[in-house]
Amino acid sequence: MSDDVFERHRTLLFAVAYRILGTAADAEDAVQDAWIRWSSADRSEVADPKAYLCRIVTNEALARLREARRRREVYVGPWLPEPIRTDAAATADPDSVSMAMLVVLETLSPVERAVFVLREVFAFDYDEIAAAVGRTPDAVRQAGHRARAQVRARRPRFPVERPRQREVTERFLAAAAGGDVNALMELLSPDVTLWTDGGGKVRQARRPIVGAATVATWFAALGTATYQGVAPADMRAETAEINGGPGVIFRGPDRVIATVTLDVDGSGRVVAIHNVANPDKLHTIAEGRTYDV
C-alpha cells in the first residue's frame, strides 16, 4: 500500500524537485531519498500523504540546491539548466518548466524558489509551504511576494500560441541549417541574447552573446563549419518537445551534441536562445526519455 501511495505522487514529486533544482539527475536523487524517508516513516501519523511527500522532497531538493549553488560559483561560462524532453499533453504549466523560466528561478534564493514553485505552479497553501521550507506562514508570504516580483520583472509573460512557437523554431532551424543570415535576422529581436553552456567540457562562448547580427552569424556558421568535431554533412537536427515547448536537438554520428530552445515574444521574434552543449547535461536527451512535469 505504501508503494502505491508513493507511486501515485512520484510524477508530482519529480516535477517539484526539477523546478527547484534545474537538473533531472538531482531531482531523481531527491525523489529517491524521499522514498527512503517515506518507507521508514510512521505513516499512521500522516494525515495528508501528498503534502507530507512534497515536504520531504522539497527539503531534499533545497539541501541539494544549496550545495549546487556553491559548485556553480566556479562553473565555466554560463550555467544553464539540464534540458529534458517533455510531453505537451502532460505538462500542466509549460512556461513554468521552460529554460527561460528556470534561468530566472536561478536568480532567487533557494527558499524563494521553493516557495514560488509550490505556490505559483502547484497551488499549495501557505501553511503547507511553511511546513515544507521550515518557515512561518508570514515569512512564506513575504518570500512569495519577493519571488513573484522578481520573476515578473525578469520574465514578462508573452502570449505566444504553441503553433506559432513551433513555426518560429522550424524556420530558425531551416535558416541555421542553410547558413542563411538574412532569414535568421528576420526571426531575431534586435537585442536577442544567446546563452551557451559548455561547462568547460566543449568549446562555447563563456559570456552571453547579444545582438541579432552577432547571434545570426553564430548560428549560420552551423551550416558551413565543423562544430564540436562534427562536419556539417555528418550533423543532423530535429525539432522536439524540450522543457514544455518546441526545441532543437543537434546530433552527430554517435552522440547528442547540443540542444537549443528559443524564447519567443508576442510578435513572434526570438528574444533569447539557450544552447546547452555540456555533455554532462545531455544524458537524458540522448536516452530519449520523456518526463511528465
Description:
This protein has a six-stranded mixed beta sheet. Strand 6 (256-264) and strand 7 (270-276) form a beta hairpin. The model has no long low-confidence stretch (mean pLDDT 93). The chain has helices spanning 2-21, 24-39, 49-72, 99-105, 110-121, 126-133, 137-154, 162-177, 181-187, 212-220, 283-287, and strands spanning 85-86, 188-197, 209-210, 236-242, 245-251, 256-264, 270-276, 290-291. The chain has two domains: 2-80 and 107-154, Up-down Bundle (Butyryl-CoA Dehydrogenase, subunit A, domain 3); 162-291, Nuclear Transport Factor 2, Chain: A. It has eleven helices and eight strands.
Outline the secondary-structure elements:
Elements: H1 2-21, H2 24-39, H3 49-72, E1 85-86, H4 99-105, H5 110-121, H6 126-133, H7 137-154, H8 162-177, H9 181-187, E2 188-197, E3 209-210, H10 212-220, E4 236-242, E5 245-251, E6 256-264, E7 270-276, H11 283-287, E8 290-291
Parallel strand pairs: 1-8, 2-7
Antiparallel strand pairs: 2-3, 4-5, 5-6, 6-7
Count structural domains: 2
Which second-level CATH architecture of the largest domain applies? Roll
Distance between the termini: 24 Å
Any idea of the CATH class of the largest domain?
Answer: Alpha Beta
